[in-house]
Write a structure and sequence with these properties.
- The protein is α/β, with parallel strands linked by helices and 477 residues long.
- The protein folds into 2 domains: 5-362, Alkaline Phosphatase, subunit A; 375-474, Arylsulfatase, C-terminal domain.
- The protein has 14 helices and 16 strands.
- Helix 2 (52-61) runs parallel beside helix 10 and helix 4 (89-96) packs parallel to helix 10 (333-344).
């Protein structure tokens, strides 16, 4: 397999329904749509976990957080405080294959920066603040105050915004690498549209809050749902927050998405102008989504709704990926991107390894027989403390296991916005039992620490499955 250049674009906390290629009627993403039109749109891509540091570590290592053990954001609850360079399979594979490697933007993996992981060049979010000060521009409070609830207008011109600075440096590194005999790998990671959405004009005023229709699940009473969801509203002070206030936040969120889209468009234009289009695999995705008012909830942690866990994933590779194609196989996006990079570089996956190569799907081949027919996702806690949850999503159903609260079960065919928890409905008892058993199988296959005799007993009450699980009888105390 010929080694392509790889440009990987990662936004932070971008909902799938903000992308035109996925049907957004309002938010403008012409360049994401452009990549989708020239490549493949993945319709069932799920994030392994809905939190920044753990999932970014999964991208580099190819394993779930329960394996790499960075369970929450770096520095919050240091079960393991950061990923170490020796656990980064993706970067090691690229370096071993002779790639030149550059990193621009958000890192959030380790206190060791990307140069300690083998990258030749690194431009950080902090570098932007230094550059901005040198340009004589004020630093808006929103860059440091993460408790700002409503979008912040940036008085700097758009071409001096943070997304523009990052795109400028991505273009600079492409120019540096283009004449080398070696292929290059470039990460371009934006902070946005993660709140507080510091956005310059004309993007800040691009979307009138009055024109943003209310999410169908905004006014969710949360009846029959786990207590943590009501507590989340209190944590973020959004109890009773009217749609008129949410729509102001969403307006800035949309504005930053379109700003980022335009800046990535400049990078794509530059690749085209240099004649690198046909030699470059473009991957465009996000780390996870955001409720941002869905179910009346802010942010992502402690809930496992589809707005957070189903993510946009677009891949363009002329001559390999058919233009305008789409894939409905279940994909664990960062795990499988790692698996794909290892495949491209000819690197054998070390064990354990949870990712799969997407190359058969990218070539338009049927999914291999062993390909999963569901997505398995996990959550371990965040700012407010440790809290274990697991998600199993099939074509129709979403089952969420809370280790210390009630189950959630949603019929996404009849209830696509996940308003009614039917876990206690006896009519669905057989479905719930099957999903629990499938979840136990995922736990066993991936070595999840929740795969123990107590969890399996609670989920299945099946003596055979209980006997197969680790527990007191097989552990030296």
């Amino acid at each position: 397999m010929e080694r392509p250049n790889i440009v990987m674009v990662v936004s932070d906390q971008q909902r799938l329904d903000t992308v035109g290629a996925y049907g957004s009627p309002i938010c403008k993403t012409p360049n994401m749509d452009r990549v989708a039109a020239a490549g493949m749109r993945f319709d069932r891509a799920f994030t392994p976990t809905g939190l920044c540091s753990p999932v970014r570590c999964s991208l580099l290592s190819g394993v779930y957080p329960h394996e790499h053990r960075v369970l929450t954001n770096v520095g919050l609850h240091p079960i393991r405080a950061q990923l170490e360079p020796q656990d980064d399979r993706l970067s090691a594979a690229l370096k071993g294959a002779g790639y030149r490697m550059g990193y621009v933007g958000k890192w959030h993996v380790s206190k060791t920066d990307p140069t300690g992981f083998g990258y030749e060049d690194y431009v950080s979010l902090g570098d932007y603040l230094d550059w901005r000060r040198a340009e004589g521009l004020d630093i808006p409070d929103g860059f440091s105050n993460y408790l700002v609830q409503i979008g912040v207008r940036d008085d700097a011109p758009a071409d001096k915004s943070r997304p523009a600075f990052l795109a400028d440096n991505a273009i600079r590194l492409i120019d540096r690498y283009r004449d080398s005999d070696a292929p290059f790998f470039l990460r371009l990671d934006f902070h946005g549209p993660h709140f507080p959405n510091v956005v310059p004009e004309p993007y800040f005023s691009m979307y009138d809050p009055a024109d943003i229709p209310e999410w169908p699940n905004h006014d969710d009473p949360l009846d029959g749902k786990p207590a943590v969801q009501r507590i989340k509203r209190r944590h973020w002070r959004t109890e009773g927050m009217p749609w008129a206030e949410w729509s102001k936040l969403i307006s800035a969120y949309f504005g930053e998405i379109t700003l980022i889209d335009h800046q990535v468009g400049r990078v794509l234009d530059h690749l085209q102008a240099l004649g690198l289009d046909n030699d470059t695999l473009v991957i465009w995705t996000t780390d996870h989504g955001d409720t941002i008012g869905a179910h009346g909830i802010c942010n992502k942690d402690y809930t496992m709704y589809e707005e957070i866990y189903r993510v946009p994933l677009l891949m363009r590779w002329p001559g390999v990926v058919a233009a305008g194609s789409h894939c409905d196989a279940f994909v664990h996006h960062f795990l499988d991107i790692c698996g794909t990079v290892l495949d491209i570089t000819g690197t054998a996956p070390p064990q354990p390894f949870h990712g799969r190569s997407l190359m058969p799907l990218l070539r338009g081949e049927p999914a291999p027989e062993e390909w999963p027919d569901s997505a398995y996702c996990e959550f371990h806690g965040s700012h407010m403390g440790l809290y274990s949850m697991r998600l199993l999503t099939t074509e129709r159903w979403s089952y969420v296991y809370h280790t210390n609260d009630i189950d959630e079960l949603y019929d996404r065919r009849d209830d696509p916005f996940q308003m009614v928890n039917v876990a206690a409905d006896r009519a669905h008892a057989g479905t719930l039992d099957r999903l629990k058993r499938d979840m136990v199988a995922w736990m066993a296959k991936t070595g999840d620490h929740l795969h123990n005799e107590w969890t399996v007993d609670w989920l299945t009450n099946d003596p055979e499955l209980i006997a197969e699980a680790p527990g007191r009888r097989r552990t030296k105390w």
